[in-house]
Amino acid sequence: MSTSTHDLRHLERALAEHDEPALTPEQYKQVFRRHAAGVAVVTLRDEGRPVGFTATSVISVSAAPPLLAFSLASGSSSWPALSRAATVAVSFLAEGQEDVSTRFATSGVDRFAAGGWTALPSGEPVIDGAQAWVRGRVVQRTPVGDSYLVSLRALAHGVTDAHPLIYRDRVYHRLTRPA
């Protein structure tokens, strides 16, 4: 039995020990579809080729040391590459980059063919025009449910004055400016 299968079974047993009713997957999705989130693209190099995907699950974990995390479904086409990666870049998309988010969320396409990205000296791609980016070293991959929580130690960054791209209820939004 693999470690992730063992961990998943342990989690399922722990959850089953409590008899309180749980949300169905659809009810759970309904809640988080209404939660506004920034949009990021996670990128890396795997066997010399760029790999990337859209993530709305990026969180700040700690400022000292600087840690962030995101989740990715274990069935994602990007998971095999991410499971081997030592470092990744997280580009926080800016308003107007809806097409980038959609491209990196689409399966079966070359997400990098349209350009709009630049490789860092260390090799990870970052999205041009993003409001910010962080390069991080993977410190942990934790199986949780049908996904992995990937924790990173922030190593380098870049920021701009751009405003963030926001995603809520399957629609992209822009922040309104104070009057």
Automatic annotation (TrEMBL):
InterPro entries to which the protein is assigned, alphabetical: Flavin_Rdtase-like_dom (IPR002563), NADH-dep_flavin_reductase (IPR050268), Split_barrel_FMN-bd (IPR012349)
UniProt-listed Pfam families: Flavin_Reduct (PF01613)
Domain Flavin reductase like: 32-174
Secretion signal span: none
SMART domains: Flavin_Reduct
Record flagged with keyword Oxidoreductase: yes
RNA-binding is among the record's keywords: no
Top-level taxonomic group: Bacteria
Entry keywords, A to Z: Oxidoreductase
Protein name: Flavin reductase family protein
Species of provenance: Cellulomonas wangsupingiae
The organism's taxonomic lineage, starting at the top: Bacteria, Bacillati, Actinomycetota, Actinomycetes, Micrococcales
